[in-house]
Design brief:
- This is 3,4-dihydroxyphenylacetate 2,3-dioxygenase.
- Keywords: Dioxygenase, Oxidoreductase.
- Pfam families: Glyoxalase (PF00903).
- One of its GO terms (molecular function) is dioxygenase activity.
- By secondary structure, the protein is α/β, with parallel strands linked by helices.
- It has 2 domains: 4-116, 2,3-Dihydroxybiphenyl 1,2-Dioxygenase, domain 1 (Roll), CATH 3.10.180; 135-284, 2,3-Dihydroxybiphenyl 1,2-Dioxygenase, domain 1 (Roll), CATH 3.10.180.
- It contains 5 helices and 17 strands.
- The chain has helices at residues 17-27, 75-84, 146-155, 202-214, 281-284, and strands at residues 4-14, 31-35, 41-44, 52-56, 61-69, 90-96, 99-106, 112-116, 135-143, 160-165, 169-173, 181-185, 191-198, 219-225, 232-237, 243-248, 275-277.
- It has a 9-stranded mixed beta sheet, covered by helices on one side.
- The longest helix has 13 residues, at 202-214.
- The two termini are 32 Å apart.
- 40% of the residues are buried.
């Protein structure tokens, strides 16, 4: 088993690169670090060389999600472990600026995954204008067989289950954050549900809503507080109609041996442990407003 330390970046294909790049720089406030020969844009929202990749293409879609591994294993050892588990991967050198080596593989639904150990750091990837999230937080995907996907992420990549919504929506962590990947059982396949960026606090969520309004990007849902994960959230669509969540105050599990999330006044359970939630308004939004029809696919 390899051990994912954190989500590294997300890569999008877009039919209108200039428009989507303007959204990520002027609205979200990410910093452009590098442009590729084909125009591909690499953007940072922290110290890593890039958190988002935008590539010109003939359709708008998520291309891949990348994870950084801890330094306990080399990429060649990781490739060997994957092969022994029946997972084929390709070792690639200099495939991206800032990442000298990476492994590329697919999950059981055919979603493309990249793994790497080392990445170049930038001095300051936080933009000077825009919303300026503190980090890329998580990605949620539609999958055809959620239990098969869970087994893959647990047994192959070392993720842990934080919570279930009944038996069709799972939240998985690779570090102290409540979730890094979410998987929603669906007839749809190889599609992203949403991508999420973490903000500092509720005050930044409020200012982000004003900034989105200034750029004619209305909220699709929120603000609210999820029951599962307990994060304050808003959702909006980027210019390519990718659903983007901005969140803060997500649950933290700082010690796996203790086995419960850091206590908060808004929790239902004391201590709050990973569990299976009933499909109810309390699980979706503790502040009461349910998602509009079609938002969850």
């Amino acid at each position: 088993m390899v051990h994912v330390a954190k989500i590294g970046h997300v890569a999008f294909h877009t039919t209108n690169l200039d428009r989507l790049l303007a959204y990520y720089t002027d609205v979200l406030g990410l910093t452009l670090t590098t442009r590729g020969g084909d125009g591909t844009a690499y953007l940072s929202c922290g110290v890593d060389h890039h958190s988002v990749i935008l590539t010109p293409a003939r359709e708008n879609r998520l291309h891949h999600v990348a994870f950084q591994l801890d330094h306990s294993v080399s990429l060649r050892d990781a490739a060997r472990q994957l092969h022994e588990a029946g997972i084929e991967s390709e070792l690639m050198s200099d495939a991206q600026p800032g990442i000298p080596e990476l492994l590329q593989l697919s999950d059981p639904d055919g979603n493309l995954i990249q793994l790497y150990v080392d990445t170049e750091h930038v001095s300051n990837g936080f933009g000077g204008t825009g919303i300026v999230p503190v980090k890329l937080g998580h990605v949620a995907m539609y999958v055809s067989d959620v239990k098969k996907i869970v087994a893959f992420y647990q047994q192959i990549l070392g993720f842990r289950v934080s919570d279930w919504l009944e038996d069709f929506f799972v939240f998985m962590r690779c570090n102290i954050d409540h979730h890094t990947m979410n998987f929603l059982q669906s007839k749809r396949k190889n599609e992203m549900f949403h991508v999420a960026f973490e903000l500092r606090d509720w005050a930044q969520v409020q200012s982000a809503c004003d900034w989105l309004n200034k750029h004619h990007l209305p909220l699709a849902w929120g603000p609210g507080r999820h029951g599962i994960g307990h994060n304050i959230f808003t959702y909006h669509y980027d210019p390519d109609h990718n659903l983007v969540e901005l969140f803060t105050e997500i649950d933290i599990l700082s010690n796996e041996d203790i086995g419960y999330f850091e206590p908060r006044p808004w929790h239902e359970d004391f201590p709050q442990k990973p569990k299976v939630w009933k499909d109810s308004p309390e699980a979706v939004n503790k502040w009461g407003v349910l998602p509009p029809a079609g938002l969850m696919g």
